[in-house]
Amino acid sequence: MEKKKEFNGHKGIFAFRIDLDFFHPKHVEKTLKAAEKHEIDMTWFVNMETGQFHEREIKRIAKTQDVQNHAFLHETFKDSVKNFENIMKGDKLLQEMGVKCSGFAAPFGFWNKELGSALEKTGYEYSSEFRKGKNIFPFYPKGNGKKSKVLQVPIHPICLGSLFESGYNEKEAIEYFDKIIKLLYEKQIPIFLYGHPTGRIGAHPKVLEKIFEKVKELDDVWFTNLTEYANFWKKKKFKQRKTTWNEHNVFVEAKKSKNRKMKSFYKGQLMRVEKKKISRRLHK
Q1: Is 5-260 a domain of CATH 2.40.128.120?
Q2: What are the CA-CA distances from residue 250 to residues 16, 19, 135, 238 (Å)?
Q3: What ranges in 75-204 are assigned the alpha helix state H?
Q4: CA-closest candidate to residue 67, choices 44, 92, 91, 94
Q5: Which pLDDT tens digit goes with each residue over 231-264?
């Protein structure tokens, strides 16, 4: 397996994104402890509608982790002014806690041209959403007829919550991530995963630890966070990669042969979330 310039001279790359929408102190602490135990610097996108009441926890996270903005209201608007105000209100509250942000993740992962326009005005370096696009590597999305100056850093779109909601149990979720990690590594696609602490990985920290352990078994992986990687990508000015993801935000290769394509999320084997009977309560 070749060393890739996009991976800073490594064979693989790993980062984990946390979307902190709601604060369950115990679950947040378990998530943080799992990361610190394995010396993983995750990027935490904090929603400040609830985060404003948890200054102590946010400052605790920021001591060892990368903290970024997940807006004030957990909503993305089809209005650039509302999006800008929502982003900057979250930014202001984080700055008052001593956290300076350069990255953003839209609530629910929805990107639109109005959000892109708002991000242009913030001075942020990057954002990370689930949007239709032509890259599984970082790229500059187009909106309003021009290319954005704000880098887009895509991630694998399936989290632990997605699996639980589709009927997976903890053991099956671990098996899923094992397969995905191996697949992305072999295809030399960034292993950028994400999850939510409350009721999800914070209630099931074993899943997160197993992800860390699985990646550490791989040879020559660059462990980074999304902010560090976005800065690296912008500095190196890499050319756009000819890879795509489909309308369900699942990675596929830009191969001429249809037989060489990775299967889509709803039809593939490795990436399929089977529709099983849901019997698990997420918030115990």
Answers
A1: no
A2: 17, 19, 11, 22
A3: 80-96, 113-122, 160-165, 170-186
A4: 44
A5: 999 999 888 775 554 444 444 334 343 333 333 3
